[in-house]
Amino acid sequence: MAAKITCIKKQGGNHEDPHHAIERVGWVQPDGQNGLSTRVEMYDWIKDKKGEAYVSDGVKSVPVGTYVSTNGTKCIRTYADGQWTNNLLSLPECN
């Protein structure tokens, strides 16, 4: 079942990559289940458990993928039209 990521919570400070600043993500599944997961928990769910996540603007849905930075940080990022994008960074902050 795919999870729609609806918000992000960012850490303060300077980061090598703005996606490193994502500390947590809020999500909801089609059955209504929802929650808040750390960036690493979401990475592991997508990568290791074959979970699927996406971001939607109401018109277009964009899948969330995983990558590991050059310093070994597990990150998540959207992938649209054949390239990595910043759709996650455009989401509102979670309360």
Sequence stretches where pLDDT stays below 50 over 5 or more residues: none
- Count of DSSP E strands? 7
Tally of contiguous helical segments:
1
Helix content: under 10%
Radius of gyration: 12 Å
Give the number of domains.
1
Distance between the termini: 24 Å
Read across the widest sheet, the strand sequence of neighbours is 3-2-1-4-5-6-7
Order of helices and strands: EEEHEEEE
Summarize the structure in words.
- It is a single chain.
- A 7-stranded mixed beta sheet has the order 3-2-1-4-5-6-7.
- By secondary structure, the protein is mainly beta.
- It is globular.
- The protein has one helix spanning 39-47; strands at 2-10, 22-28, 34-38, 52-56, 61-68, 74-80, 83-85.
- The chain contains 1 helix and 7 strands.
Give the tags.
95 residues; seven-stranded mixed sheet
Gist?
The protein has one helix spanning 39-47; strands at 2-10, 22-28, 34-38, 52-56, 61-68, 74-80, 83-85. It is built from one helix and seven strands.
What's the helix and strand layout?
Layout (H helix, E strand, L loop, with lengths): L1 E9 L11 E7 L5 E5 H9 L4 E5 L4 E8 L5 E7 L2 E3 L10
Parallel strand pairs: 1-4
Antiparallel strand pairs: 1-2, 2-3, 4-5, 5-6, 6-7
